[in-house]
Amino acid sequence: MSEATANSDVFQTPLQKIWGEIEDHGLESYIAELDAYGYTVIPPRLATPGGLCERLLDAVLDVAEGRNGVRPDLETGSTHKGFKGRFQALAGDNGDSPIGDLMQSLLFEGRVFEEALMNPVLLTMASYLCGYSVVLSSMGCFMKGPNVSTFALHSDTPLPSPLPPHALVCNLTYVLTEFNRENGSTAFVPGSHKWCRSPEGAETKVGDGGNPKAVAVECPPGSLLCWHGNTWHGAFNRTAPGLRVSIPVYMARPYIRTQEGLVGQIPDEMLERNPARFAILAQQGIAYGYKNQDDSVARGLRAYKYTKAYMDGEAALTPGSQSLYS
User: Fold this and answer.
1) Long-range pairs for 178-182 at CB < 8 Å and ≥24 separation?
2) CATH of the domain at 45
3) Could you tell me which residues are beta bridge partners of residue 228?
4) Is 86 within a domain?
């Protein structure tokens, strides 16, 4: 345990607090890599202890079977080969989905997804990038079989260029099957987060004849792939048999519009069985977006309730800590 974390009588700024967490989890080298390249890969021994990867993989296979009526074929990928899905209208006769099947809104599909959101290593990386007030924007699953389409390079920051240098959003992806180029891995342009703009034209292309600076990530199942919202990324097509399975946990600062609207949608039993921070992550501390005055009052009271519970808990752990929104 770091000195800053151990000595709870010392006043801590948010930077001191997050650095204590980084030291506690042994993430210093990954933070350095993240700052330098805009992305990093945290290995399974740190990212998914206790069989979390295996349990998440089993869970998303169950979800896919329930939603699509057939269990995904991990070995051959035959269930997803040439998958078009929501890209049917855009793919044409010879194209397919560049991302495979995207299954959205996983948080309500089982407790293992709550565990994935509350993973201390994931939360440390998200808090470092987007602050302690960070919220879940969306949690889904990409399931991609052999395909021909690459996924164009882009940034996740939902603003026009120029982009701010600090992260407004970040992506923390659970890698559930092996990532490499043949398997359709994520592509990154190292250092692109520092350019503070999105790619344009020929810069967006991935693969043969594409952006020469784009590299494929290689990592084993159970890794956690983390990147800054400005970082240029896309994906190679999968040429090998089988499926590429991953769970992107997309996080945002609370003033950024989220992909999923969770305010007032989380069951009480889910909130009660999780730590106080879970409510903040699940957008229950957000008051804006009201429909009328009565809704404004109700949202304000709910936000105050959950924010106060979180802050009271943090104050008990670390007296003198600054505001959640510092």
Assistant:
1) 178/219, 178/220, 178/221, 179/216, 179/217, 179/218, 179/219, 179/220, 179/223, 179/225, 179/244, 179/246, 180/216, 180/218, 181/216, 181/218, 181/236, 182/238, 182/239, 182/240
2) 2.60.120.620
3) 170
4) yes
Angle between helices 120-130 and 14-24 (to 10 degrees): 150
Residue range(s) defining the domain that contains residue 10 = 3-260
CA 276 to chain centre: 20
CB under 8 Å to 228, separation ≥6 — which residues? 34, 38, 39, 129, 167, 170, 193
Q: What is the DSSP letter of 301?
A: H
CB-CB contact of 107 with 117 (8 Å): yes
Q: How far is CA 13 from CA 131, 133, 314, in A?
A: 12, 14, 13
pLDDT digits 0-9 by tens, 263-299: 999 999 999 999 999 999 999 999 999 999 999 999 9
Query: Which residue, among 53, 290, 46, has the nearest Cα to 175 in the 3D structure?
Result: 53
pLDDT category, 77, cuts 50, 70, 90? very high
Neighbours of 173 (CB within 10 A): 23
Instruction: Summarize pLDDT for 194-233 with one digit per residue, the tens.
Output: 999 999 999 999 999 999 999 999 999 999 999 999 999 9
**54-to-43, 62, 175, 215, 285 alpha-carbon distances in Å:** 15, 12, 11, 27, 32
- What are the backbone dihedrals phi and psi of residue 106, each rounded to the nearest 5 degrees, phi first? -85, -15
| Residue 271 within a domain | no
Residue with tokens 């030291």: 23
36-61 pLDDT per residue, tens: 999 999 999 999 999 999 999 999 99
Q: How many domains are there within the chain?
A: 1
pTM over 0.85: yes
